[in-house]
Design goal:
21% helix; single chain; Rieske Iron-sulfur Protein
Length: 196
């Protein structure tokens, strides 16, 4: 019997081709798994910053938009509303917003960059309901000590016009202020601030 000669170059070629085909197959099999961990376009859009035009927002009016699946309010406060914010600190749970619920640039009595324009996440800190905007002063259903603000119909939590919670409410803390910035005098970008 004669010894067969082995062609080393063909063997190396076959090994290299087998490895290449195996690598392509492994990448093909792993791609759906890796892609399933990536956020969908819908999820990316839900977390994306939202631009709002406030040029037509009249004093006293509110506009609601959605950011990250939550309602965000933009309120154009009147001078009278702003004056009320300083008259009831003794009735607030956290009047100075000491809890970390707003960006540093909104840690002030109005909880805003510009006092007359308030931007806040409209979710009650008690159980997550969305409070109603109640700018009226001393309505019959809320009492003589109501200076205007947000009232949660689910369990009766009360917030002032800077979304600071009033004492005696089921809600434990103020509603949060999202990061935001002004793109111009009439446009706000919610979800991104100057540092971003």
């Amino acid at each position: 019997m004669s010894e067969m000669s082995v062609d080393g170059s063909k063997r190396r070629f076959l090994v290299a081709m087998s490895a290449a085909v195996g690598g392509v197959a492994a990448v093909g099999a792993a791609t759906p798994f890796v892609m399933s961990m990536m956020p969908s376009a819908r999820a990316l859009a839900a977390g994306a910053p939202v631009e709002v035009d406030i040029s037509k927002l009249e004093p006293g009016q509110i506009v609601t938009l959605e950011w990250r699946g939550k309602p965000v309010w933009v309120v154009h406060r009147t001078p009278e509303m702003l004056a009320m914010l300083t008259k009831h600190d003794d009735k607030l749970t956290d009047p100075n917003s000491d809890e970390d619920q707003q960006p540093a640039y909104c840690k002030n009595p109005t909880r805003a960059i510009r006092p007359e324009i308030f931007v806040g996440v409209g979710v009650c800190t008690h159980l997550g309901c969305s409070p109603n905007y109640r700018p009226d002063i001393a309505p019959a259903d809320l009492g003589a000590d109501w200076y205007g603000g947000f009232f949660c119909p689910c369990h009766g939590s009360r917030y002032d016009l800077a979304s600071r919670v009033l004492k005696g409410s089921p809600a434990p803390k103020n509603m949060p202020v999202p990061p935001y910035k002004y793109l111009s005098d009439s446009k706000i970008l919610v979800g991104e601030d100057q540092k971003a």
